[in-house]
Target: TM2 domain-containing protein
Amino acid sequence: MSNQGSGGNVLAAICSFFIAGLGQLVQGRILAAILFFLLTWVNYTLAATGILFFMAIPGLVFHLWAIIDAARYKGGN
Model:
């Protein structure tokens, strides 16, 4: 990707909005994509059980973190 705020980063942030980690995958950051996806969806799944409903809060935090991380990525060059 070019720079922060580039069209690629905006697209990656939109992808992460729908599925956490997808924006990182679009950017080619496989490990970050897997980690964000697992951290977010494990918490959402635990929240969906009803017993651990409070796990939705860390899930939301990880999801927002994935969106912001995709939008602010500057590249490894």
